[in-house]
Every structure is written in structure tokens, then in C-alpha cells.
Amino acid sequence: MRAHVYRNTPRNLALLARVLRNGGLVAVPSETVYGLAADALNPEACRKIFAAKGRPATDPLIVHIARFEDLDRVAVSNPAALKLARAFWPGPLTLVLPKKAVVPDAVTSGRNSVAVRMPAHPAFLRLLRLAGTPLAAPSANPFGYVSPTTARHVQDGLGERIGHILDGGACRIGIESTIVDLRDSSRPRILRPGAITADELQRILKRPVSLQPMRTQRSATAQIAPGQLARHYSPATPVRLHPKIRTTLIAATDQTSDGTARQRVGPAAGKEAWVFLKRPPQTVLRACGDGPVRWLDRVGDLRGAARRLFAVLRELDGLGLSAIHVEIPAGAGLAEAIRDRLARASGRP
To answer: What count of other Cβ atoms lies within 10 Å of the Cβ of residue 113?
Structure first.
């Protein structure tokens, strides 16, 4: 049976809250990406998440809460964590802290720490309050694939494996939350970059916040937090990254006898797509050949680029292309988060 998509109404929220209290799964909207939710304190319900996604048990889940006081219910907090929670919750920030015994090992991959956040999407918050329990909710897609940012994306990926999808519209941010390891509050570090940047965190904490270098982790090793594998958020079509995509295009074309550009990029036969941060000039468009061309934001605004990134990768992945060439942004902040997702999408950290 295909999943039913529910509109965001009080009646539907009450129904879906009952599904969650009874150990079922519900795909939910958030400001980051859509998640697949279950009662975080019910180990059997959480195991259903792993089964539906095909997710390895070594990849822990993020626990979502609706109230600040719920943090102490699931984790051992500290002053640094409370400062960040007051500054950025509800919002796209996940804190890794020592866990309380009430959190099942199935949620944390057997580790003694737990990742916690308070989402900003109003429908998700209302559902959390109606369910009356913290909810574990990784991205609502088959494990390793591009994260979903609309209810349709969830239906396309998990529609035959789950029964309930709450439609909350397109995600406002479009990439997963920033994850900060605060198990040692004197040495905060970003495990996964996101919309909350290192500079913003440092302004609140009044101390340096390091960014963990991207590294290869095997799925057989229990991770500290989600999003640590070298290949993740990945379409089936090969993704190739270019710091200076226009230089790449110029080097990858020559002139035919009639003076038109002839593309000769990559060893694979077939059409290739080109994805730019902002709309390129006509001279660059002509060099792209006859494959599809997309830009993430008309003027290159990184917030717009992040919002559209996964939707564009999904769209192009369905076109039977031989490769997707993507321009990567330079700089810090949100650019780091976009580079992180693209590096994992390409499988080349």
C-alpha cells in the first residue's frame, strides 16, 4: 500500500500523533529536510526507521524535542549547550551530549551520547507536543540517497515502505542541521556544517569552535552523529565537482569546422548536466553542450542555493544522464555546508 499524504490540519495532526504513540512511523516536515519520525523512547519503533530506510544500525538518530525542559529528559546538559539552545532553538542546530538512560541504544548506535535538536517547523513542533514524547527522525529517504525537501520526494523514495506522510510544504533551509559536539564543552566542534555557522556559534560561546575535517568513516563503525560517512546525500548519477566550473568548460570544449563549441567532458558517453551557483552568461551556457543546465540561485545567494540543492540533484538524477557537473562555492559559513553535502554526494571527500 502506498503512503497516504496528509494535509497539515488539527484533525490530521491528532491522528498522526496517535500513530506515533502507538509505535508507528510518520514522515514529517522540518525547516531543514523531511524526517522519518518514531517515538525516540521506544526501541522497537526506532528499529522500524532503520528497516524502512535500509539504514545501518551504526548510524545514530537525532532526537527531536518540543520544549527546552525536554533536553534534560534525554541528555546531560552543560552551560555551553544551554547557551546555544537559547540562541538557536527552535532551529537547525543539533547538540551532541552525554545521554540519559531513558534513550535506547537503538537510537544512539550503542554510544553513550545522543544528538538532540528542537525543530523550527510549526507543524513538526505541534506534532511533537501532541505525541507527548521526543521523536527520533533521520531524513525520510532510502539510506545514502539525496535528502527529501518536499512530501513528493518522500513519496518517491519511501512511499511503498511507510504509511504516513505529513505535508508541510517545501523545506525552508534545504540542508540538514549543523551538528555540534559538546560532550567536552571546553572544546566544541562542528561534526556536520549547516545553516548555523562556526562564526555564529563562536559569538555565543565566546570561544573557538573547530570544524571536524571531513574523513572517511566505515558504516561498520558506530558514529557519533549522522552525516559522517564519506558517501552520503548521493544520487545514482555520478557527481563531479568543479571549484572553477567556467575554466573547466573552456578547457573541455573545442571548435568544430563551423565555429560552434563541441563538448568533450569526461569519459562517459551520453548527456551531462551542469549545475551553477548562479545563472551563467550566454557564452558559458553555449559551452555546456546539449545537456540540461541548472542554477541554484539566480544571483548566487547561498541560502537560495542550499534550499534548491537537493531538489536539483534529484531532478537531474531522473534524466538518465552520464554525469552531473556541479560548481562548488568558495569561502566559509554556509559555503562549507554546501561543499560538505556535494563532497559526500560525489563520494570524494
So the answer is: 20
Assigned C-alpha cell, 341: 553535502
Q: Record the cell numbers describing residue 53, joined without a space.
A: 530506510
Name the nearest CA neighbour of 42 among 108, 128, 135: 135
Convert 251-288 to b/e letters by CB count within 10 Å (16 or more is b): ebbeeeeeeebebebeeeeeebbbbbbeebeeebeebb
CB 62 within 8 A of CB 117: yes
* pLDDT, tens only, 165-211: 999 999 999 999 999 999 999 999 999 999 999 999 999 999 999 99
Rounded to two decimals, what is the model's pTM?
Answer: 0.92
Cα 26 to Cα 16, 34, 38, 74, 275: the distances in Å are 7, 10, 7, 21, 33
Q: Are residues 181 and 48 in the same domain?
A: yes
Domain span at 290: 239-346
Nearest to 309 by CA among 227, 137, 165, 194: 194
Asked whether residue 231 is assigned to any structural domain, the reply reads: no
Residue with cell 509505535: 23
